[in-house]
């Protein structure tokens, strides 16, 4: 196919069904963006032949069962090109799936939803959203994150195949495709993930790079002149190129090259011209804005499509997709189901595990090895107790996999039981992933693992959660049960100084909707934290742990740690028989709970009636009925002191206008731990003094 002077493909006079299908994808994309008067028409138009070739000839995907376990995955990392995916989902007649994993017999993307692109409650939002539109494999959103997530999916396919496959039973062997653009490859997270994918030799991974030389500000020559092919070859990738995005034969050859590659991931560089309009115009406008009614009509006329028809789909295009992608996908899915039934008869235990994994359920007895930690004045760092609990759970949940951004010895997240092993190029059965110093990629890859129904955790120091925030946020947005483990949780890092002392990070994580942030105070709260986390099916969690040892509380003296499940609970209370209800409430999380208990002892000895509340998870506590919350924090007790070695932001909701917060209002400093605690007021004496001042203020206001 040749190009006109304006970079427009010259149509053939005898239009084939392939041409008609590609044109229909383009016109649906144009119409959706124009109807919304918002969106990006360029990439969907330019990449329509590429996506069409992949879906119609190569993708193993059954539109009637879009969650079939061994389907190939297609991740639109260039999420601004969402109409491209919506057009494919509509033309393929992909069926919707409900939250109970049931196919409901309704279209995932009805034509009316395409007409309402970017409108309230449409199944076609501005960027594809997982769990909102069936057939969308991942919420990609910010550029670079989608391709990084696809690496997790490719790892999951390797692990699942190694664990579940048996001779004559290949239950897992899917490929993962991701469509990306210049913006994706400029982002650092894409480079992090590409480096790891090359190291792991993920030959089931294919990135399709839309090399169109355009970003919002204009030609990529402004900022991006590197040799992408050479870079990826250096990362250990197989690189192939298609010089014209409209050349369906060369596109098919490129996908065949990917399928033949056995030792490397593949990058297909596709040269395209963004936004095939009928006249020459500003490319940035074509990329990021609707074409305009006149341009839409002219473009349709050029392609031989009815220029005044909106959202026009010829019946033969539906039939064509049904005969290609639909029929091929149904055969593959039916063969898989038949294989699985034979597998179930021969390997019933593995078959049951596969079912549980796919439905995010836990095996019976998964927590059988969890035990209570004995009281211990010295105790354990919560990172250490967490490591022990994790290694009691993981042998009983075979698809629980862990990893760290190069800090497993410090975060205590290594799975150390017999047979756990390390995941690697020639060890796809390993349960320990090594991400290297790549925090953002680690979190994004963990998202990909979870989207593939493994149960992943990843870890780093709390201060480095900032690097991964984009992916942490997406795990909450997608409602997937990734476990984000953060250690070295406070200024207790000490001599490393303010660059390594997390101050604002806990507040930052708490600001993410749908992300329970749990900061346990001792080993038994850690047990309960993991018990709660493992039960989550549609929600991630952030587990925030100490480096320094914390006493293991005597639960015959203090309230049971099971109170953690409600987010907050009364840990110690005033002796009602000795003078009535509490006059003062001390509230804390994590290591500071022990500080408040020491202040409680001092104040109680002086005749003050004190209640201590452990509040390890604000999000869970705020979900409790008002009656329970009032029973823990009675509204009529206004003298309250909260203590946390972190930003004070947000604590006002618990201490009220008359309370006091002992926290961090500046960055930390480099010094031994004891000196830091004294400098910033984290001592029993400081808490006691703040409590008395708080009570004095209350008495003055009453009088």
Layout: helices, strands, pairs:
Blueprint: H1 17-36, H2 42-58, E1 73-76, H3 82-91, E2 95-97, E3 103-107, H4 111-115, H5 145-164, E4 176-181, H6 182-186, H7 188-200, E5 205-211, E6 214-215, E7 218-219, H8 228-234, E8 238-242, H9 248-260, E9 266-271, H10 283-288, H11 293-303, H12 315-346, H13 348-358, E10 376-381, H14 382-393, E11 400-404, H15 408-411, E12 432-434, H16 439-451, E13 455-461, H17 465-478, E14 483-487, H18 505-510, E15 517-518, H19 523-534, E16 541-544, E17 549-552, E18 569-572, E19 584-588, H20 592-605, E20 610-614, H21 618-622, H22 626-632, E21 640-647, H23 652-655, E22 660-664, H24 673-680, H25 684-702
Parallel strand pairs: 1-4, 4-5, 5-9, 8-9, 11-12, 11-13, 13-14, 14-16, 15-16, 19-20, 19-21, 21-22
Antiparallel strand pairs: 2-3, 6-7, 10-17, 18-20
Provide a descriptive summary of the structure in words:
The radius of gyration is 28 Å and the shape is elongated. The protein has 25 helices and 22 strands. The strands form six sheets. A six-stranded parallel β-sheet has the order 12-11-13-14-16-15. Helix 1 (17-36) packs across helix 12 (315-346) and helix 2 (42-58) packs parallel to helix 3 (82-91). By secondary structure, the protein is α/β, with parallel strands linked by helices. The protein has three domains: 20-334, Rossmann fold (3-Layer(aba) Sandwich); 376-550, Rossmann fold (3-Layer(aba) Sandwich); 567-702, Rossmann fold, CATH 3.40.50.920.
